[in-house]
Write a structure and sequence with these properties.
Organism: Desulfosporosinus acidiphilus (strain DSM 22704 / JCM 16185 / SJ4)
Structural class: alpha/beta
CATH topology: Arginase, Chain A
Pfam family, one: Arginase
Cofactor: Mn(2+)
CATH architecture: 3-Layer(aba) Sandwich
Helix content: 25-40%
Strand content: 15-25%
Low-confidence stretches: none
Catalytic activity: L-arginine + H2O = urea + L-ornithine
Pathway: Nitrogen metabolism; urea cycle; L-ornithine and urea from L-arginine: step 1/1
Mean pLDDT: 97
Order of helices and strands: EHHEHEHEHHEHEHHEHEH
Bound molecules: arginine, manganese (II) ion
Oligomer: single chain
Length: about 300
């Protein structure tokens, strides 16, 4: 039992991605029993509902290199205020996506709350593009760069002009698909990238231990941003940008369990579940299982 409260914030956004469907992610995870499972683990749970997000059919693309910039900025403005408020009240924000562009708001909110936090970003992708390096113009390929002060002012200024993350405390796990210039940008940063090759060679346990060590250096908590496409598409088919060769179901749970053991998790994003592309809600059910492992569920 623990007395803390998880506050769920749904962000049904798909404006940052190329295909529709991830906007249904929050519903799919709720339908898979998220709230009840967390209650069973002894958490207090308060579902704050969904943020209001426009749908692409009612909007125009004004800038092909930054699609739906204004709308995405607006949603993340709202999100960052909510996240900061939850943390200041002593709660744990659990942000359900939606596409990964919501990472802009969750990281800006954490920064605004004044907490010094490390970041572990589970993703196939680097999400470190800007309008200069992107091939798609999709903003869900940009949130980590934005949080590090790189990108459109409308996005980097949310929650103030300063960088929202510290590179030394930021770790990507599971990378296997990066755009060439994005990779160069990441190489030039002090962000740690553990690719699938690192996981193959060193094992998930060692990789996560090292990630936790880096994310907790002179910080007082860890934020996990989990993009479901990091998992192998055989086990997580319901994602918009599937790439073969991902982490397994067991590796993903192990990672969440190791993070839970630290007691340092202060907030979490679970993003990129696409029920339209899923098989009988399998990916959302997996997402709920992983959230539970991150919040303390044990086999025995
Ligand atoms: N959050 C994600 N699924 N991002 C995928 C990004 C893919 C590609 N690198 C792009 O910038 O378009
Ligand atoms: Mn991502
Ligand atoms: Mn991804």
């Amino acid at each position: 039992m623990n007395g803390r409260v998880i506050r769920i914030i749904g962000v049904p956004i798909d404006l940052g991605a190329d295909r529709r469907g991830v906007d249904m992610g929050p519903s799919a995870m709720r339908y898979a029993g998220l709230n009840a499972e967390l209650l069973r683990l002894g958490w207090k749970v308060e579902d704050l509902g969904n943020l209001e997000v426009p749908i692409p059919e009612t909007r125009e693309i004004n800038n092909k290199l930054l699609k739906y910039l204004e709308e995405i900025a607006k949603v993340n403005e709202q999100l960052h205020l909510k996240v900061a408020e939850v943390i200041k009240e002593g709660g744990v924000p659990l942000i359900l996506g939606g596409d990964h562009s919501l990472g802009i708001g969750s990281l800006a909110g954490l920064a605004l709350s004044g907490r010094r936090f490390g970041l572990i970003w589970f993703d196939t992708h680097g999400d470190y593009n800007s309008s200069v390096t992107t091939n798609s113009g999709n903003i869900h390929g940009m949130p980590l760069a934005v949080a590090n002060g790189i990108g459109a002012k409308e996005l980097t200024s949310i929650g103030g002009e300063q960088k929202k993350i510290r590179e030394e405390n930021t770790v990507i796990i599971g990378a296997r698909d990066m755009d060439p210039e994005e990779r160069e940008m990441l190489r030039r940063s002090k962000i740690t990238v553990f690719t699938m090759n690192d996981i193959d060679q060193r094992g998930m346990k060692e990789v996560v231990h090292e990630a936790i060590r880096r994310a907790s250096l002179e910080t007082d908590g860890i934020h996990v941003s989990f993009d479901l496409d990091v998992i192998d598409p055989l086990e997580a088919p319901g994602v918009g940008t599937p790439v073969a060769g991902g982490i397994t179901y067991r590796e993903a749970h192990l990672a969440m369990e190791l993070i839970a053991e630290t007691g340092l998790l202060i907030s979490m994003d679970m993003v990129e579940v696409n029920p339209i592309l899923d098989y009988k809600n399998k990916t959302a059910e997996l997402a709920v299982g992983l959230i539970c492992s991150a919040f303390g569920k044990r086999i025995y």
